[in-house]
Amino acid sequence: MIDADATDGSVSTLEVTMDRGADGAAPHYHTRSDELFYVADGELQVLAGEHIRTIGAGGSLVVPRHMPHAFGAAPGSGARILIALMPGVQRFEYFRLLDRLVHGAATHDEFVAAQSEFDNYFVDAPEWWAERNAHRG
To answer: What is the pLDDT of residue 137?
Structure first.
């Protein structure tokens, strides 16, 4: 929706729509930005620190910088969410890199090397994956 360069770095925003039970972002944290999640429709399952919670339509959650987090549509529900990173980070190029990775035009090493550029550091969170996989058939 809005990348950081359009707001002089104060905020970047995006809208994400997920099918029923779909995974969103894998566990990660940011060092420079707090992240706001607003659930516009459906239900969102979120890992925030050591807690996994479900947020319904109209609800929100702020994840402070350095806190590991992940999200996905709740089991049995789709979700449409709005995300704001404050201060903003250039996210559009990050998503272009993800697309190139998925389509074989970028390597995993390039993706790992870009973590600091995009302030997105992945972490291991077995409790998140155990919860997500418990509801899959």
So the answer is: 62
Please name every residue paired with 13 in a beta bridge, in sequence order, or none if there are none: 2, 84
Pairing relationship of beta strands 60-63 and 79-86 according to DSSP bridges = unpaired
**Confidence (pLDDT) at 1:** 86
DSSP 15-83: EEEE-TT-B-SPSEE-SS-EEEEEEEEEEEEEEETTEEEEEETT-EEEE-TT--EEEEEPTT--EEEEE
> How many alpha carbons fall within 13 Å on the CB side of residue 134?
7
pTM over 0.85: yes
CA distance 63 to 68: 8
Token code pair at residue 102: 């998925």
Could you tell me the end-to-end alpha-carbon distance of the chain, in angstroms, rounded to an integer? 34
Q: Residue 55 maps to which CATH number?
A: 2.60.120.10
Residue found by looking up tokens 């360069």 in the block: 5
Total domain count, the chain: 1
